[in-house]
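Kindly review this protein for my students:
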Amino acid sequence: TMDGRYLMIGSESTETSEVHFLDLQQQQQTRDSHEPVAPHVQCLAQRRKKVLYEIDHRHGTWWIHSNVGNLPNYALFSAPAVAHCQDLWQPVLLNSKPLFDGGPV
C-alpha cells in the first residue's frame, strides 16, 4: 500500500479481482508453546463474478475502488482493515469536506 503498511498480492482477469495482503508491521506471534508464528497472507475479499476492485490503506481503513453492485462506473468504498471484509464495504459519498489533510485520507 502507499503507506507501506501492507504488501498486496493481486490476481485479476477481465471480469474479476482477488486481493491478498500481508501486514508488514505485524510482529511475530507466539503459540501456546511460545514458538514464533510468522505473519501470514490473508484474503481481503474473495473473487466475485463481474466484480473488479483495487485497494489502498490509510489510518486503519481499506479504501476500495470497485464496480461492485453492477455499477457502470467505479465507485469509492471504505471498510475496516481486516481480512474477508467484502460484506463491510460502505460507499463513500464525497461532499465539500477535504479528502486529505484532516479528511479521511
Notes: The two ends are 13 Å apart (CA to CA). The mean pLDDT is 86. Residues 6-91 form one domain. The first strand starts at residue 6 and ends at 12.
